[in-house]
Design brief:
heterodimer, A: mainly beta, four-stranded antiparallel beta sheet, globular, B: mainly beta, seven-stranded mixed beta sheet
C-alpha cells in the first residue's frame, strides 16, 4: 500500500498570507497526485490533479508542484473562503488520501 | 453537468449489511472514460477511499475492506451501489460517491450521506 503523509496537520494564517502544505508518498508516485479542499459539512472539491494541473474553475492563487515522493500545494494569497481542510491523494496505485491539513484563521 | 446523489438507510445495526446507491444524472455510467467510486469519512476524521467500478463491472477496493465490500453498477438505472457486510461502529461515517477520471482525481462528488451503525 502507498501511504501519504501530509504536514502540517493544521496551521493558522491570516488573509493575504502565502500558505504551503506538503504531502509525502511512501514510494514514487511520479506525478499522480491530486489535491482537494473540503469545507465543513460539504463534499471535497478537486483543486489540482496530476500534481500541478489546475482543475477548471479553481482560482489561480492555488498551485501544485512536485514529483516522485514530495509534493506541495501553495495558496499564494489566502482569501477568507480558503479557510478549510485540504487533502492530498495519490492515484498511482489504487487511491490513498493523506491525513489532511486544516487551515484556520489566525 | 453530471450530478451524483447518494441514497440509503441512515441507520444500520451491527453485523448487518450497509447498502447505498449513487444515482448519476446529466451523464452516463456507461462512459468508458470514468470510474465510479465510493469514499467515506468517519466523524471528525479524514477521507478514506473504499473502491471503484468501471462500466464493465471491473472493481478495485482498498485491501482492508475487500473481504466485506461489494461494488456493483446498474447501467439500465444509471446508478452504482455499495454494500458493506458485517458492519461495526467503525463503519459509521459520511459516505460519498464520486466520479474518477483515471489518474486525474475525483472530479464530481455527491453531497454525501451519513450512515450510523448502532443497535
Amino acid at each position: 500500500d502507498i501511504q501519504m503523509t501530509q504536514s502540517p496537520s493544521s496551521l493558522s494564517a491570516s488573509v493575504g498570507d502565502r500558505v504551503t502544505i506538503t504531502c509525502r508518498a511512501s514510494q514514487s508516485i511520479i506525478t499522480y497526485l491530486s489535491w482537494y479542499q473540503q469545507k465543513p459539512g460539504r463534499a471535497p472539491k478537486l483543486l489540482i490533479y496530476a500534481a500541478s494541473s489546475l482543475q477548471s474553475g479553481v482560482p489561480s492563487r492555488f498551485s501544485g508542484s512536485g514529483s516522485g515522493t514530495e509534493f506541495t500545494l501553495t495558496i499564494s494569497s489566502l482569501q477568507p473562503e480558503d479557510f478549510a481542510s485540504y487533502y492530498c491523494q495519490q492515484t498511482y496505485r489504487l487511491l490513498t488520501f493523506g491525513g489532511g491539513t486544516k487551515v484556520e484563521i489566525k | 453537468q453530471v450530478q451524483l446523489q447518494e441514497s440509503g438507510p441512515g441507520l444500520v445495526k451491527p453485523s448487518e449489511t450497509l447498502s447505498l446507491t449513487c444515482t448519476v444524472s446529466g451523464g452516463s455510467v456507461n462512459s468508458g472514460s470514468y470510474y465510479w467510486s465510493w469514499i467515506r469519512q468517519p466523524p471528525g476524521k479524514g477521507l478514506e477511499w473504499i473502491g471503484y467500478i468501471d462500466n464493465s463491472g471491473n472493481t478495485k477496493c482498498i485491501p482492508s475492506l475487500k473481504s466485506r465490500v461489494t461494488i456493483s453498477v446498474d447501467t439500465s438505472k444509471n446508478e452504482f451501489s455499495l454494500k458493506v457486510r458485517s458492519v461495526t461502529a467503525a463503519d459509521t461515517a459520511i459516505y460519498y460517491c464520486a466520479r474518477y477520471f483515471f489518474y486525474d482525481g475525483l472530479d464530481v462528488w455527491g453531497q454525501g450521506t451519513t450512515v450510523t451503525v448502532s443497535s
